Amino acid sequence: MAIDMRVDLAGVSLPNPLVLASGIWGSVAGTLVRAASNGAGAVTSKSCSLAPRIGHPNPTVLHWGHGFINAVGLSNPGAHVQRQELARAHEELAPTGAALIASVFGDTPQGFADAVHVIAEAEPELVELNISCPNVESEFGRPFALDPDAAARATEAVRAVYAGPLLVKLSPNAPELVAVARAVVAAGADGLTAVNTLGPGMLIDLEARRPILSNRVGGISGPALRPVAVRCVFELAGAVAVPIIGTGGVSSGHDALEMIMAGATAVGIGSGLYCEGDGIFRRVLEEMEQWMEQEAVDSLDEIRGCAHG
After folding, report:
1. b/e burial code for range 173-200 (CB count within 10 A of at least 16 → b)
2. Left if phi > 0, otherwise alpha if psi is -120 to 50, otherwise beta: which for 288?
3. What are the backbone angles phi and psi of residue 7, rounded to the nearest 5°?
């Protein structure tokens, strides 16, 4: 039986539903192409802003047994430098068939728009607005993703300068997640990424008697986040008619299929790369295909959103 793993993400055709999540392998063309060559249907660059950011000092990431806690602080070289690397990535990704998703953030709606205006020159297939990082609230204030009006303003500002496929990355911390989703869709978003890290949380070093992360607090990702992410995708899929990249703790074919059944169009993989490397994409795809063959499922369209019953 021939299994069709292709998906349509906001008008962009992907050879399969697996997406390298933002922030894992940075934005160097070589690493993005490496993920695609090893089975990713799309790759997302690390979030960038108009101006460069150093981010937080080490330690910034810790595996704590049930997932990860991180506070990298959105370090990036700035949009003008990143545009050059993404342009190279776009060219080198062409033979793989994988799409390039450029992730962008700002501290104001205009900041988002200015960064996207620069990054769009690299011709990514999609742009993702990271309005939901929980690790820079002390600098930027309350994340845009926690307020429908603020989220809409950021989306509208970008829509004024960018006409291509636009995704908005949401937060599991939003008290009105569906309201935020509806607001950004009404403002022009073509799709959603659900979700960013949960928290922030904290871990304490008993010997040092201090928080482990230099930022003290950080976002929670990995397996501990997955049930929350699945619930978010389920809620969003029942409320808005746009594609969703379901991301959060996915590390197996079972996990990916669970996201699809909750209503996701595509599935992001991030923290799993820390433990397994780029081989995770092919393994997850193989596990998905094996299950689909056993269950006589010809395409992902047959089971997408089926958990809504």
Report:
1. bbeebbebbbbbbebbbbbbbbbbbbbb
2. alpha
3. -140, 155
CA atoms of 136 and 56, how far apart (whole Å): 9
End-to-end CA distance of the chain: 26
* Total Cβ atoms within 10 A of residue 295: 10
pLDDT single digits (tens) 15-29: 999 999 998 887 899
Q: How far apart are CA 283 and CA 192, in angstroms?
A: 25
Catalytic residues: 133
Q: Is the peptide bond before 59 cis (omega within 30 degrees of 0)?
A: yes
> What is the structure's pLDDT at 23?
86
The domains located in the chain, with CATH, are 7-308 (3.20.20.70)
Residues 6 or more apart from 299 whose CB is under 8 A from it?
A: 3, 4, 5, 6
Q: Look up the pTM and report it.
A: 0.96
Give the Cα separation of 262 and 260 in Å (integer): 5
CA dihedral sign, ordered 140, 25, 79, 132: negative
3-state secondary structure of 111: helix
